[in-house]
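User: I need a structural model of RanBD1 domain-containing protein from Cyprinus carpio carpio for a docking pre-check later this week. Nothing fancy, just the predicted structure tokens so I can convert them on my end. Input:
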Amino acid sequence: FKSILSPSKSPSKLNQSQASVGTDDEQESSQEEQRDDQYFDPVVPLPDLVEVSTGEENEQVLFSHLAKLYCYDKDLSQWKERGIGNLKILQHYKTKRTRLVMRRDQVLKLCANHWIASNMNLEPMKRAEKAWIWNAFDFSEGQGKVEQLAVRFKLQETANAFKEVFEEAKTAQEKDTLLTPFSAFSKPDKRPGAKLSSLNGWFYRQLDEFLGQT
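Assistant: Understood. Predicted structure tokens for RanBD1 domain-containing protein:
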């Protein structure tokens, strides 16, 4: 008669082995409960939370839309792309002064930052639809510098809306007027040819969609 048990373990040792398994499970459960109650101080002290300021807290957004910005290089006599991102026209609540601000998408680095003055003129870019050209004393690089800038939008309706807000912003401070944020397309527009839609009066487009059309 041969035993069906493994030759390496006798019945008594097998029972002891099974008992030890139960004991190990209980020990692990107890250790986990102890670990739940433990607290470890961080090796490196964490810095306090700092509120990030954009400098736009006291301004209202009159216009915001995804666009592509260019700057004219006089040395090379050609236009150079400066960045893609949301171009904004802002107005200070108290001073009524207006400015144009644009940050590069994702990195949020300034690529345009200048006051909007009454003597500024938007001119259509030659051989380029949906684009405007103007001169400004720009502070995007820190120190002010006279630049010739150009902006291009995906849709002609958006380009027209930008010009409309820009023209109103030119004289807002002189008239001491707090402008109403552009919202001509916030509701269904029944005018012939109006196709542009928006969210809360601010225009938004996905970056990949914009790049696919430019």
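Before docking, keep this in mind: Strands lie at 59-73, 78-92, 98-103, 110-115, 123-124, 131-138, 145-152.
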